[in-house]
Known about the structure:
Blueprint: H1 6-14, H2 17-20, E1 30-37, H3 55-62, E2 65-71, H4 77-86, H5 90-93, H6 109-113, E3 119-124, E4 140-142, H7 163-170, H8 184-188, H9 196-210, E5 216-225, H10 258-268, E6 271-272, E7 275-276, H11 280-310, E8 317-323, H12 342-345, E9 349-352, E10 362-368, H13 372-379, H14 394-397, E11 407-411, E12 420-424, E13 429-434, E14 440-443, H15 459-479
Parallel strand pairs: 1-5, 1-8, 2-10, 3-4, 3-5
Antiparallel strand pairs: 2-9, 6-7, 8-9, 11-12, 12-13, 13-14
Amino acid sequence: MPGITRRAALASALAPAVLRGQRPAGDKPNLLFVWTDQQRADTMAAYGNAHFRVPAMNRLAEKSVVFDRYYVTQPVCTPSRSSILTGLWPHQNGTINNNVPLPATARCWPELLSDSAYRCGYFGKWHLGDEIFAQHGFHDWAGIEDGYIPHYSAARDRNARSAYHHFLLEHGYKPNTQQGTFSRGFACGLPAKHCKPSFLAARAEDFIERNRANPWLLSVNFLEPHSPYTGPYNDLHSSQEAPVPLNYPGPMEGREPRHLAARREATLNQRVEGQDLRQRAGWERLNRNYAGLCSQVDQALSRILWALETSGQAHNTVIVFTSDHGEMMGAHSLTGKGVMFEESLRVPLLIHVPFRGFRERRVRRPVSAIDLVPTVLDLLGRKNDEALPGESLTRVMDGGTPAEDHVFVEWNTDVRTPRYRGVVSPDGWKLTLHEDDHHTLFHRPSDPLELRNRYDTGGEAARVASALRKRIESWQRQVNDSYPLPQ
């Protein structure tokens, strides 16, 4: 896997010396925001995984503040992405399910920053409406997905194609669908140099080089390790390096929500990437492929970080690395996301700020993705005066305590999963109140694999559930969440 070599590091130290003098550290800092799709937290060394081959992620974590317990607002693509970009809860900005377009009135980072000196780029998956068209204050735009054409607004040209589509045409490939597009399955079967991560790395390299003399904001959003669970590095990891999760097959002790049992049965009856998921060998193959997808992203990340170094602006660039939600990958015999298990909710969050000296390199308190926009604005020198519901995490990064020490999660309409509201406490309790289904209460310090539902066990569990329910009710009042909590 290519990385930042010793020779490259030496060249970096020598070549951009003049460029470094253009803008001192902290003077209109740049933002490099790198995010993946469906990457759970335990995919890198900072989160306990020394076996996945992700050296660039691991090196970035070593010089970043690592958030041990960072949770998304709603564990599915569109709603979670909306919170990361706007700082609003999905029920506040209206994107309560996939393929709901982000309203024009919901302001994203460039609009919130409101600084014309910045050049703003968005490369990769968007999934918030009008997929391949520049919007919400981003000047440079490079889409990679043509599967969302049915969800374009009426005024958009449905014959337009993504930048990645044209890249493939330039390299001699022919569209493989009746709609004249390249499917995800086709793209992930290509050599690594023509897959989406490599394409995005090239676009990011070019953007960073072109804007090296000016302040910039760049979002690079990879599709991987989202399904299809296959790619050019399927055989990079062994089954020992990418094992099936310890909570496989995973039926829980106590009353299990009916929808989870039904979803497990449906999952086991699927053939995913040709694998029989009623056999452990099928899960072993998927986990090896998933690890390979993480490595594919890592390869692209290495290129982007190298471009940043050679541009001479690494000393003045805030780097954020995260994901929109996690992936079950066999935990409780499930794939995907949408549930209140750790594998679905908890994702990496690394924040590197070269011009600030933070006392702590790890934040062990639970924090929410709702706090990410205020944090980014704060680090770029723009205070949160937009009445956003979250708070900047810089105080926590400095060793302080957050104003809200519980993390809340919402889930809205979906055909497979009933609506729910959930909360994670600082001491490791997790309550989920499901609509028309059994509720769950886990105590992660004593049950890290979430295999024992304690909601109906009485005693201490009953007292904790009552207190956490009141926490959810208080949060709902603060954020105008009208969903009626089930009894």
